[in-house]
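We give the entry.
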Amino acid sequence: MIRTDEITRFNEAIDEAIAESVRYYSDEVERWRNIFLGVLGHDLRSPLTAIMVASEVIAGMAVDAPLAKVAERLVNSGERMRELLDKLLMYNRAQMGIGLAVDRRQVDLAEACREEIQQLQETMPNARIRLQVPPAAHGCFDARSLCEALTNMVVNAYKYGDSDREIEVALHDHGDEVELSVANHGEPIPPDRLQLLFEPLRRGGVTQDATLERSSLGLGLFIVSQIAEAHGGAIRAESIDGRTTFTMTLPKG
């Protein structure tokens, strides 16, 4: 005769086996999804490069205004597609545990920030950006990736902040480390949502510019966190009295 405790142990074993099978299946689905994204991103680079080259040739040959305008739109769209593809590949690397590779060199981060903000102001003329940096901030950084992080934070501030208020960008040199922060004014963000903003494929809410929102993958702040982590640093967020600030802390060495 089968005892009650034997039936209980049998049911527990069945439940455990089912749970393990579900976990294995979920892990396999996630692994193959990441492989698919990696292959797709890699294979899209060649046709995109061809489109970019052809667009630039057409832009160079355009003489009449209508054709020149269309060619410029093609080039800009290609650049935007390349940016989205780069973000997708960066997300893919992070999901597969590869991490972000950075090329750290001795640079003046203050000068790099000044140049990046100047370029951003040209591409976002409606944005009001106030920059505060020291005369110099020398350290061993990957300036290119940090400028990308700065751009992502400023674009995020512009998308979700009050367009009538300034976006405040600041770089502080604390000797062994630097702090790079971007602040904007707008609707306060509840504390329980702040850290969720760094998770991939999330968006903050209603934007000031619908076009920017449609062209977003929801990876901007996730990429910022990956860049900070690759530098051995960290990023934090706070939202107090309608002022939201994202701050990257980065060691110089």
User: Anything to note?
Assistant: Residues 205-216 have pLDDT under 50 and may be disordered.
